[in-house]
Amino acid sequence: MIIEQYSLDSEHAATLCKTANQYASDHNLRICCWVLDPHGNPLAMQRHNQAALASTEIARKKAWTAVSFKIPTDQWEQRLKKQPHLLNNLMNQDGIAMFGGGFPIFHNDQLIGAIGVSGASEQQDVDCAQHALNTIVLS
């Protein structure tokens, strides 16, 4: 059996990072943005010079979490609020980030990658990533 799977290409990934970073610049924010393929491999990364050093790794973790579980990272708390033991255990796993700023990217209902943004407030990270996703044209 052969499985056909699609992926975001590196050109669109770079555009997503550039768009998120431009939105951040326009709002006087300093962020890092990662875009991963559907297997969690890096496609693009862009970081403002003045972004916090930790934002680089946090943004990658947000993207990886989003692509791994196929849900936005800001949904974890609500989904697991009745299962605090599970939420706590997942939050303590290396490589997982369960707060806003990570989004899976779908095209025709198929996962094609993920974006992760970090460096500003949680809501600002979400806004930067969402702006990039809202402006990208996939064909």
Task: Please provide a written account of the structure.
This is Heme-binding protein. It comes from Amphritea balenae. InterPro entries: GlcG_carb_metab_protein, PduO/GlcC-like, PduO/GlcC-like_sf. With 139 residues, the protein is an alpha+beta fold. The chain has a single domain (10-135), classed as Beta-Lactamase. Helix content is 43%, strand content 19%. The protein has 5 helices and 4 strands. It has helices at residues 10-26, 53-69, 76-79, 84-91, 122-135, and strands at 32-36, 42-47, 102-107, 110-118. The chain has a 4-stranded antiparallel sheet with strand order 2-1-4-3. A hairpin with a 5-residue loop joins strand 1 (32-36) and strand 2 (42-47). Helix 1 packs across helix 5. The longest helix is centred in the N-terminal third of the chain and has 17 residues, at 10-26. The mean pLDDT is 93.
